[in-house]
Specification:
mainly alpha, 236 residues
């Protein structure tokens, strides 16, 4: 009977090991399916990020640089057994990383989250114009037209001095002050708003408030001329 008992014990031990191996094989198969599903999802996400990056570059007028090494991490075939086997994992860009594939996949997902966050920040900045980005469109237009009118007023002061020494006659000075310089200031403001007041991702031209700009330029330059005449008379 001792031989039979030893035989029965050996059979039970073998049966237990077989069941343990089966459970390990099931767990390993489930782990592989989870890893490959994660890799597939991450690959789709990286492809969408690359496509969006190309769209942003095209909208901003920048050359799109495609990295041929960009792609989902390659998950190695795990060694058979109930637990994960360490191995070499190739991450995005082809860099070798030693460690658990699940850990590498999780780290790559974290980096993809960071890319999404930075991409949202870049899109938010691209929605703003380069000129006075935190200002409202109306305030930006007023500032630009007023600045151009101020430059026109400075040119007008130079012309007043030139008129005083006989270089510019009164008719030319009056024509430039009442019509020429206000118009030039308005056109300059219009062009500045169209060039630097347009967000990089804008699909349409920004509002440039032409009536308001013309009013500002037509008012400020002649007004500056009148103030200059008053000051010169007071000084004399």
């Amino acid at each position: 009977m001792a031989g039979y008992d030893e035989y029965a014990a050996a059979v039970r031990q073998l049966s237990a090991r077989i069941r343990e191996g089966e459970r390990g094989a099931v767990a390993e198969a489930e782990r592989r399916r989870t890893l490959h599903a994660g890799v597939t999802q991450l690959g789709q996400r990286l492809a969408a990020q690359e496509q969006r990056l190309a769209q942003l570059a095209a909208a901003a007028g920048l050359p799109a640089v495609a990295d041929p090494a960009l792609g989902p991490p390659a998950v190695p075939e795990p060694a058979p057994g109930p637990g994960p086997a360490p191995g070499s994992v190739t991450g995005p860009g082809g860099s070798g990383v030693d460690g658990d594939p699940a850990v590498v996949l999780a780290e790559t997902g974290r980096l993809a989250d960071e890319v999404d966050r930075l991409g949202q920040q870049a899109e938010a900045l691209a929605q703003r114009p380069a000129l006075l980005p935190t200002w409202s469109p109306t305030a930006r237009a007023v500032a630009v037209y007023a600045g151009c009118a101020a430059v026109g007023a400075l040119i007008m002061l130079v012309l007043v001095v030139a008129n005083g020494i006989g270089v510019v006659n009164g008719v030319t000075l009056g024509a430039l002050t009442c019509a020429g310089l206000p118009l030039i200031s308005f056109v300059a403001g219009w062009l500045v708003l169209g060039r630097w007041g347009r967000p990089a991702l804008a699909t349409t031209d920004p509002p440039r408030y032409a009536p308001l700009g013309f009013f500002i330029c037509a008012l400020l330059v002649p007004l500056a001329y009148c103030v200059t005449l008053v000051v010169f008379r007071l000084v004399r």
